[in-house]
Amino acid sequence: MALADNTGCAKPSEDFPFPEIIELNVGGQVYITRHPTLVSVPGSLLWEMFTQKNVRSLARDSKGRFFVDRDGFLFRYILDYMRDQQLVLPDHFPERSRLQREAEYFMLPELVKMLAPKFSKQNSLGDDPCQSDPEELSPSADATRNLTSASATLPSTVAGGPGGAIAAGTGAAGTDIRRAGFITIGYRGTYTLGRDSQTDAKFRRVARIMVCGKTSLAKEVFGDTLNESRDPDRPPERYTSRYYLKFTFLEQAFDKLADAGFHMVACNSTGTCAFAHDQTDDRIWTSYTEYVFYRE
Known about the structure:
Elements: E1 21-26, E2 29-34, H1 35-38, H2 45-49, E3 66-68, H3 75-84, H4 96-105, H5 109-115, H6 141-152, H7 164-170, E4 181-193, E5 202-203, E6 209-214, H8 215-222, E7 226-227, E8 239-245, H9 250-259, E9 263-276, E10 283-295
Parallel strand pairs: 1-3
Antiparallel strand pairs: 1-2, 4-5, 4-6, 4-10, 6-8, 7-8, 9-10
Helix pairs in contact: 4-5
């Protein structure tokens, strides 16, 4: 009786140390792919890793998966490119410049060229490359530029008339127009209250500061301190409630909002008793607090 062909599940040998199916742990994200996919681009970092004979030199996690200490969310686009050498990104992709850095790390020059910013005739090569990313351009960008050029031609006396708000927002050079909008930041916390006395309260540090609002406003205010990994494909003019800050100091968030012209208009907090210790009078409370900021 003929035996079934189990080459796809064959164990590694000395001549071929890698299995057909390979599990990768990239920054905590697990990927499963075929060995030919990882070596499809000669000269790339993955090609160098998975064509060597000394498998023991490659880092592994606790479950034996090959470990790569890079951005696990962006690696899916790297792996897609390795499959057919084509680049397909979602609309309004907000991580283009970061993905370009990942392509440079994995030594994929053709992918780096695909991700390179394209400059128009109006833009100089000295401009920040991130300004050409799709996420930095809103549907109302043309209208904003037209409004800027129009306000620059208005006389200074208009500031006291109906258009005064626009003139004040543009400044002397007529180049700094800031859009109005809301940004809400919130955080969850716990505290221990003993014997029903506030003097015995023990508070834990803030674990994470959440950011809710329009994507473009959140990026403008918090910049590189904004973690977008939980909602990476959100268009700039859409709202999200999944961003959070890379720091855990509320005062630092307040300072950034104040510097951007926002002021607090509302806040609220709730607290519930989660459980009480059996042997003590201490009660563990959980709380959630939100602060709403607005810029005119």
